[in-house]
Amino acid sequence: MRTNDLIDALSERLEPVSPRAPLLRLGVWVGGGAVVSAILMLTVLGLRPDMASAMDGMMFWTKFAYTLALGGLALWAAERLGRPGVRAKLQLTVVVVVVALFAVLATGQLMMAPAPMRHHMLMGDSAPICPCLILALSVPLLVGTVMGLRGFAPTRPMLTGLAGGLAAGGLAAFVYAFSCNESAMPFVAIWYTLPVLAAGLAGAVVGRFALRW
Prior knowledge:
By secondary structure, the chain is mostly helical. The protein has helices spanning about 5-10, 20-45, 50-55, 60-80, 90-110, 115-125, 130-150, 155-175, 185-190, 195-210. It has one domain (about 60-210).
């Protein structure tokens, strides 16, 4: 069979694919991971008992805004990195800026607090367990993110996996925030950010192998 005939034979049954198909696939997989993570949080940890009163405080909403910003921006970066020839320098830079800005605000809050309160603002009541729980909740989100990104064609799988891992960690921290009664910015800046970074590193390792094509 001649080359042209072979090409014609292979292309006979091709069907057009919507350019939004990879994005839809990513949304479905990440959404599924988020649902699993939320179910685990509700069934294993439960909502914080003082949710109604806590919603009156600014720190409550700051924690949610921070984690959602990390997860959303990193997911945006991962989606862009999944497309050949597309960069995500702006998105990744904004992620770094958000972390740095939150760290500055947390440091300011810590310095302004009375000395006897500073240790509790840093360690809270759950510093040893908080990162572990966020990492555990990030597992279904990381699986969903990687599976969703497999519908793309990333040329830098490790960097794409890193962004996907950061997204999984940020969204997992957002889910965990519904159960955690810690709201001090110094605590969140340390014990929420560290597992997000750890999830990013895990995503980079997984992405190196799972996102190759």
